């Protein structure tokens, strides 16, 4: 048997058979082609990942708005439909005729000034707060100083404030802050936009502050009136109200809140609703209340919000180019602070609510 031998020229001989050791590798062109193909595959994978990530964030943002705005907005509308239940009549109109003077009326536009100790006048007839006249800052107002917004403009950039009241005709109902309302008691609810301090950073949200009271004609007509700072719950004892407080955030991430009054000039709206001339107006100022509403009755409400998602999303459109229409407010732009913030998914939600107890009577 011939042993294994190797020559210096990388030639091998095994059993008298010669083999040449041939070592081959990739050429430069082959390496470049492989590198390009790898980059193309990686780019495609990254594009798929990026697209999937963007879609996922948009879906999450859309889910945020639906969870927050749609649910909260439907709850508000449910409460607004109760407005005017329990309203009281005047010498001029019956209890179904709702305007800016209706005692215990549904849309709270006016409050008694308490001249000479007389509290029996206007929507909040007979009521005081901590022994004093109820501040106009707690009433329904257009572009209220107590209701912030994230929109831009030269004037009237604040959100509206909508204050309603109604009487509860059954047990087991709760106000907008989650407090139980005793049967036959009244509740006042004030809807406005404020900063949500439970979030970091603080973001604007739609809040509601409320007050529950038991109407007593004798006490209402007394020099002291009915003080709504506290009330006596039939089973739970003394309770404290929060009408002038910060309230509870019911819809987080709200950039703007708008409300309008639906008026009708018909005295027999329930019998001939087709004959009623109706129109929507912005909430009138205190000095223009009698002129704007006059002999008309409030039969409907329109409310709208500009809501945004909890988490930012990716969009090709800058905040500075966004424009919205909220009820009668068209071409609404975001203010500078919001424009310079991250991009969020935003949507407008609107609703029209017919006040169920405002159509009857004459």
From TrEMBL:
What range does the record give for the signal peptide?
A: none
Q: Which InterPro entries match?
A: N_methyl_site, Pilin-like, PilW
Keywords of this entry: Membrane, Transmembrane, Transmembrane helix
Organism of derivation: Psychrobacter glaciei
Q: Which residues cross the membrane?
A: 28-50
Q: Which gene encodes it?
A: comB
Query: Pfam families from the xrefs?
Result: N_methyl, PilW
Does the record's keyword annotation contain Metal-binding? no
The answer on whether this UniProt entry bears the keyword Transmembrane reads yes
High-level lineage? Bacteria, Pseudomonadati, Pseudomonadota, Gammaproteobacteria, Moraxellales
Protein name, UniProt field: Pilus assembly protein PilW
């Amino acid at each position: 048997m011939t042993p294994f031998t190797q020559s210096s020229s990388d030639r091998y001989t095994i059993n008298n058979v010669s083999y040449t050791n041939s070592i081959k590798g990739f050429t430069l062109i082959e390496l470049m082609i492989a590198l390009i193909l790898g980059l193309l595959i990686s780019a495609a994978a990254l594009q798929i990942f990026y697209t999937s990530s963007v879609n996922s964030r948009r879906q999450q943002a859309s889910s945020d708005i639906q969870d927050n705005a749609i649910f909260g907005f439907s709850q508000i509308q449910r409460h607004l439909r109760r407005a005017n239940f329990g309203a009281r009549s005047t010498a001029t109109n019956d209890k179904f005729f709702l305007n800016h003077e209706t005692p215990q009326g549904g849309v709270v536009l006016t409050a008694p000034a308490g001249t000479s100790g007389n509290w029996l006048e206007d929507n909040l007839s007979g009521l005081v707060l901590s022994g004093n006249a109820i501040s106009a800052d707690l009433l329904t107002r257009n572009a209220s100083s107590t209701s912030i917004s994230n929109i831009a403009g030269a004037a009237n950039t604040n959100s509206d404030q909508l204050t309603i009241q109604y009487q509860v005709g059954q047990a087991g109902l709760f106000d907008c802050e989650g407090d139980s309302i005793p049967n036959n008691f009244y509740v006042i609810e004030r809807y406005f936009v404020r900063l949500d301090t439970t979030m970091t950073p603080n973001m604007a949200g739609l809040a509601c502050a409320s007050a529950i009271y038991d109407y007593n004609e004798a006490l209402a007509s007394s020099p002291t009136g009915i003080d709504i700072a506290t009330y006596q719950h039939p089973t739970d004892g003394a309770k404290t109200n929060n009408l002038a407080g910060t309230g509870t955030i019911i819809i987080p991430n709200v950039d703007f809140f708008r409300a309008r009054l639906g008026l009708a000039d018909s005295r027999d709206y329930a019998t001939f609703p087709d004959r009623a001339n109706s129109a929507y107006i912005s909430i009138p100022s205190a000095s223009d209340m009698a002129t704007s509403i006059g002999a008309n009755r409030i039969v409907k409400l329109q409310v709208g919000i500009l809501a945004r998602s909890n988490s930012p999303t990716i969009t090709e459109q800058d905040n500075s180019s966004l424009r919205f229409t909220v009820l009668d407010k068209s071409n609404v732009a975001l203010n500078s602070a919001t424009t310079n913030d991250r991009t969020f998914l935003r949507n407008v939600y609107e609703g029209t609510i017919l006040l169920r107890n405002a159509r009857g009577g004459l």
